[in-house]
Write a structure and sequence with these properties.
The complex is a heterodimer of chains A (about 110) and B (about 120). By secondary structure, chain A is an all-beta fold. Chain A has no helices and eleven strands. In chain A, strands 2, 4, 5, 9, 10 and 11 form a six-stranded mixed sheet that branches. With about 120 residues, chain B is mostly beta strands. Classes of the chains: A mainly beta (about 110), B mainly beta (about 120). At the A-B interface, strand 4, strand 5, strand 9 and strand 10 of A face strand 4, strand 5 and strand 10 of B.
């Protein structure tokens, strides 16, 4: 079976840096993605790691270690609008993504 | 111009009824999906279609029947609704290509409430 573990909730203050971890156990692995979902909204794509290492997109970075079955999303210079749920998702090559249970990020002033 | 649009946005109905949700994408993608998001926000794949062909049916009860008339449309019909079917249903699409480059674009979701 497939399982992805991520913390259920993280709280941080504006301007800070926060890291959301994701560990996975899947049969087949092609890459790890991250999605953001605001309350009442749709999940939207943030980043993708197919190879080990760090990918940077503006204030957001994502890291993958395939040997450790581990990745994280790093959010810098936090803003109030970053308050949302963040999901890691694994591409197992089945033409669908398997999502983690989501991490609710609360950014406080 | 909405990329993935699904209707209706809200559905409130009684147990035992039948309902449908429609989805259309104008991105030219070859793969479409239905995901179910429960009250704990867990996003679970239900179905995946590639060029109108069913490729994933994730042990969903056969009360749920997807239909893809063409690669831009994927509808979901649900028979004999049960309380546990209450959830937000998301349609999504992607241009899957080779495995590992799969970026999903989601619709706004359809919130189904079964009373």
């Amino acid at each position: 079976g497939q399982s992805l573990e991520q913390p259920s909730e993280v709280t941080a203050v504006e301007g800070a840096i926060v890291q959301i971890n994701c560990t996975y156990q899947t049969s087949g692995f092609y890459g790890l993605s991250w999605y953001q979902q605001h309350d009442g909204g749709a999940p939207t794509f943030l980043s993708y790691n197919g190879l080990d290492g760090l990918e940077e997109t503006g204030r957001f970075s994502s890291f993958l270690s395939r040997s450790d079955s581990y990745g994280y999303l790093l959010l810098q210079e936090l803003q109030m609008k970053d308050s949302a749920s963040y999901f890691c998702a694994v591409d197992t090559g089945r033409r669908a993504l398997t999502f983690g249970s989501g991490t609710r990020l609360q950014v406080q002033p | 111009d909405t990329a993935v649009s699904q209707t209706p946005k809200y559905l409130v109905t009684q147990m035992g009824n039948d309902k449908s949700i429609k989805c259309e994408q104008n991105l030219g993608h070859d793969t479409m999906y239905w995901y179910k998001q429960d009250s704990k926000k867990f996003l679970k794949i239900m179905f995946s279609y590639n060029n109108k062909e069913l490729i994933i049916n994730e042990t969903v009860p056969n009360r749920f029947s997807p239909k893809s008339p063409d690669k831009a449309h994927l509808n979901l019909h649900i028979n004999s609704l049960e309380l546990g079917d209450s959830a937000v249903y998301f349609c999504a699409s992607s241009d899957a290509g080779e495995p590992g480059a799969n970026v999903l674009t989601f619709g706004a979701g359809s919130r189904l409430t079964v009373l």
